[in-house]
Design a protein that fits this description.
Strand content: 5-15%
Radius of gyration: 22 Å
Largest sheet: 11 strands, mixed
Oligomer: single chain
Number of strands: 15
CATH architecture: Alpha-Beta Complex
Distance between the termini: 6 Å
Shape: globular
CATH superfamily: Amidase signature (AS) domain
Strand order of the largest sheet: 3-5-4-8-10-9-14-15-13-11-12
Number of domains: 1
CATH topology: Amidase signature (AS) enzymes
C-alpha cells in the first residue's frame, strides 16, 4: 500500500497548525482531530475563532473532497454564520452558550435547510427544489448557534433506489471513498457524513438511519455514530423512507462530540408531533452529557451472542475483540454469554422490505407535494425523471428497481399489515425479550450486524471504533439497547472509548 500521490504532504500530516487564509499569522492550535471541548477551549482562550475554523474546513474540503467526495455542497453563508458566532462570543460568556455555538456541522443531503443549500438526497431530480422550512433538527441546530457548513454526500435516496448501486454513490455527489482505504466500502447511506468527519473536513455531522445507515458508515470510517430511539429526534423535513424506522443522529469523531450534538437535536417538534411527544419522555433532565462517565461500564450487564455477532474472517481482528471483551470486564461490566439457540434474534428481511416499499411511496409523495417548488411531485415523477436524467448512463447501469417496486404498491394492504405485524412480533419475542430475560443494559455486537434488529423495533444503538482489518479498514463495536436507554448506552460507549482510544486519523491508503 502507498499514500495517494495526489495529496500534498501538508494534508496528510496528522496535526496541522491553522494558518489564517488572509494573513501570514500561524495560530498555535491544532484543529485536526480537535474535539468540541478542544474547540470551545480554543475559542475561550482566543486561540481560535469560528471564522478561522470554517476557513480551515473549507480549505480541507477543497483539497480532499475531489478524491473522497464526502461533501456534496458547501454553504455559501457558512462564513457569515461563523462571523456572527464570533461577534456573539465577544458579548456573551462562553458558559452561557450552547456546546455547539460556532461549531461547523455537515448535514446529510436528505435533511432540509431553508437557505441557499439544496436538499436532494443526492439526486438531480430534486436539484433546485425549495423546501417550506428547515428540518426540525436544523431549527434546533440553528438555535444552538451551530454553523451549517454544508451538505454531506450520501447513497442516493438513502440506498432506496437500486439494489445494484454501490454504497456511497449518488448522481450528484459521485462515489464516496473510504479515507482509510480508497478501494474499500465506505458503507451507506450516511457515507458522506462519516467520510467527512473521519477525514477532518468537518467538526461534526448528522446522518439518518432506516436500517444501518448511521451505524454502518460510522463503523467503516472509524467514527462514532448514535442511532437514537425512534422519535427522540424529529424526522420533519427529512426526505423519508418510513417514519416507523427513520431516525436522525450524530456522526462524530468522539462519543462526547456525538452526545453534544444529540443534546442539541432531541426533543418535541410539532411537525413530527406524535413520535417526538412520546419519545420526549425518555429525555433525561439535564440532558445526555451528564452520562459521559469514564467509569460508565461499572456494573453494566452486557449481552454477548457469539453467532452471528462475533464471527470474524481474520484472526487478528478476532483477537482484538476478545481483548475488548476482557477490557469490558476489567472496567466492571458483567458479560452475559448467551447461547446462540436461546437468543432468538430473528430478522425477516422480506417482511421489512414489504413494509418499507409501501411506506416509502406514501411518505415520499407527501414530502414532495409539500415542497414550495420542485421538478418532481411524486415517486412516479422521479422514476420518469431518471429515465431521461443527466445521469441516464448510471440509471441504466444501476437501475431503479426499488423505486419501481415501491411505485407498484397500493397503500397499506393486507400484506403490508401482516409484514408490520410480523416485524413487531420479532421485536417483542426477540430483542426485547432477550434484554429483559437476561436483565441486560445493552447487547454488544461487532461491526453493525445488529442494525436490522435495532431498526425494526425502533431501538437505539451506538457504534465506536474498535479495530482495523489487514487492509486498514476500520471495524466498530456496537452497543444496542431498549427504547430510551441512551443514557446507559452513552455511559457504556464513552467508558469503552476512554479505556481503548482505538481511533486514529485516516492515511488515505489505496
Amino acid at each position: 500500500m502507498k499514500i495517494y500521490s495526489a495529496l500534498s504532504l501538508s494534508i496528510l500530516v496528522a496535526s496541522i497548525m491553522l494558518s489564517h487564509s488572509n494573513s501570514n499569522k500561524c495560530y498555535a492550535f491544532s484543529i485536526r482531530e480537535a474535539s468540541i471541548d478542544d474547540l470551545r477551549t480554543a475559542f475561550n482562550q482566543k486561540q481560535l475563532t469560528s471564522t478561522q475554523l470554517v476557513d480551515f474546513y473549507l480549505e480541507e474540503i477543497r483539497n480532499l473532497n475531489p478524491i473522497l467526495k464526502g461533501v456534496i455542497e458547501v454553504n455559501p453563508d457558512a462564513l457569515l454564520q461563523a462571523r456572527k458566532a464570533d461577534e456573539e462570543r465577544k458579548v456573551k460568556k462562553l458558559d452561557s452558550l450552547s456546546a455547539l455555538h460556532g461549531i461547523p456541522i455537515l448535514l446529510k443531503d436528505n435533511i432540509a435547510t431553508n437557505d441557499k443549500l439544496n436538499t436532494t438526497a443526492g439526486s438531480f431530480a430534486l436539484l433546485g427544489s425549495v423546501v417550506p422550512r428547515d428540518a426540525g433538527v436544523v431549527k434546533k441546530l440553528r438555535k444552538a448557534g451551530a454553523v451549517i457548513l454544508g451538505k454531506a454526500s450520501m447513497s442516493e435516496w438513502a440506498n432506496f433506489r437500486s439494489y445494484n448501486a454501490p454504497n456511497g454513490w449518488s448522481a450528484r455527489g459521485g462515489l464516496g471513498k473510504n479515507p482509510y482505504n480508497l478501494s474499500a466500502d465506505p458503507c451507506g447511506s450516511s457515507s458522506g457524513s462519516a467520510i467527512s468527519v473521519a477525514a477532518n473536513m468537518a467538526a461534526v455531522s448528522l446522518g439518518t438511519e432506516t436500517d444501518g445507515s448511521i451505524l454502518c458508515p460510522s463503523g467503516f470510517n472509524a467514527v462514532v455514530g448514535i442511532k437514537p430511539t425512534i422519535g427522540l429526534t424529529s424526522r420533519a423535513g427529512v426526505i423519508p423512507i418510513s417514519p416507523r424506522q427513520d431516525t436522525i443522529g450524530p456522526i462524530c469523531r468522539t462519543v462526547s462530540d456525538a452526545v453534544y450534538v444529540l443534546d442539541a437535536i432531541v426533543g418535541f417538534d410539532y411537525n413530527d408531533e406524535e413520535a417526538t411527544r412520546k419519545a420526549s419522555n425518555y429525555i433525561p433532565h439535564g440532558g445526555y452529557a451528564q452520562f459521559l462517565k469514564a467509569d460508565g461500564l461499572n456494573g453494566k450487564r452486557l449481552g454477548i451472542v457469539r453467532n452471528p455477532f462475533f464471527k470474524f474472517e481474520e484472526n487478528p481482528v478476532a483477537k482484538a475483540f476478545e481483548h475488548h471483551l476482557l477490557t469490558l470486564r476489567k472496567k466492571g461490566a458483567v458479560l452475559v454469554e448467551i447461547d446462540d439457540d436461546k437468543a432468538s434474534l430473528d430478522y425477516n428481511s422480506s417482511a421489512e422490505e414489504t413494509a418499507l416499499l409501501a411506506e416509502f411511496k406514501i411518505y415520499l409523495n407527501t414530502y414532495l407535494k409539500e415542497l414550495i417548488a420542485s421538478p418532481v411531485r411524486s415517486l412516479a415523477d422521479v422514476i420518469a425523471f431518471n429515465e431521461k436524467s443527466p445521469d441516464l448512463e448510471m440509471t441504466k447501469q444501476y437501475g431503479q428497481e426499488v423505486f419501481l417496486a415501491a411505485e407498484a404498491t397500493n397503500g397499506i394492504g393486507n400484506s403490508e399489515k401482516e409484514a408490520r405485524k410480523n416485524l413487531g412480533k420479532l421485536s417483542r419475542n426477540g430483542f426485547k425479550k432477550l434484554m429483559r430475560q437476561y436483565k441486560l443494559d445493552a447487547l454488544v455486537a461487532a461491526r453493525y450486524d445488529v442494525a436490522s434488529v435495532l431498526a425494526i423495533g425502533g431501538f437505539p444503538g451506538i457504534i465506536v471504533p474498535a479495530a482495523y482489518d489487514s487492509k486498514g479498514v476500520p471495524i466498530g463495536i456496537c452497543f444496542g439497547g431498549l427504547k430510551g436507554t441512551e443514557p446507559k448506552l452513552i455511559e457504556i460507549a464513552y467508558s469503552f472509548e476512554q479505556a481503548t482510544k482505538i481511533r486514529k486519523p485516516p492515511t488515505f491508503l489505496h
